[in-house]
Amino acid sequence: MTLYLRNAQPTDAGKLGAILHRFEVDTPWMPKTHCEAEAIAFCGTMIDRGWVTVALTDRVVGFLARDGGQICSLYVHPDMQGQGIGKALLDNAKSTEGELMLWTFQANEGAQRFYLREGFVEKRRTEGDNDEGLPDILYRWTIAQELQMKEALAQEDDA
Q1: Start and end of every N-acetyltransferase domain (predicted)?
Q2: Under CATH, which number does the domain 98-159 receive?
Q3: Residue 65 and residue 48: Cα distance in Å, rounded?
Q4: Which of 6, 19, 22, 94 has the smallest number of CB atoms closer than 10 Å to its CB?
Q5: What is the pLDDT of residues 105-141, one digit of tens each?
Q6: Of 92, 29, 95, nearest to 62 (Cα)?
Q7: Taking CA 60 as the corner, what is the angle to CA 88 and CA 89, rounded to the nearest 5 degrees?
């Protein structure tokens, strides 16, 4: 599989909205509060702001939206998860920012494992101070943290 990353184009909004909406529909603990048209419009707004990077193979398979160092969305098509697409999108964001922050829902244990594996550190939790009313977690990554972690691992390997 060859993966390409590029800036999103307005014509990507429908594909990205479908990925986002499918997450809501397929996730049992997620409140069903948005229709697909709203998800498409939301993605269109993020694209118009210049926040979105898309991942493509022979089709759009995921996206990351960020406002500077604040990651607003990271979604991968469910059929394509576990293939390094989310990591590629995240690594691309890391390559341009020294610090990244994001929120994930406490119920999203897969996302928590992913972000911890990618060097993010939990900063705080809320009991649902978000549109969905779900408890969530704020994570932070810095290049300094990542360099310290790599140095510690290299020292372990040398021991």
Answers
A1: 3-144
A2: 3.40.630.30
A3: 11
A4: 6
A5: 999 999 999 999 999 999 999 998 888 999 999 999 9
A6: 92
A7: 15
How many Å apart are CA 19 and CA 36, to the nearest integer?
A: 9
Relative to beta strand 99-105, strand 136-142 is antiparallel
Type of residue found at 55:
A
CA angle 9, 72, 129 (to 5 degrees): 145
The architecture (CATH level 2) of 1-97 comes to 3-Layer(aba) Sandwich (3.40)
pTM of the model: 0.92
Helices (H), the chain: 13-26, 36-48, 85-94, 109-117, 143-158
Tell me the C-alpha distance between 139 and 143, whole Å.
14
**Comparing C-alpha atoms, which of 58, 54, 57 is closest to residue 20?**
54
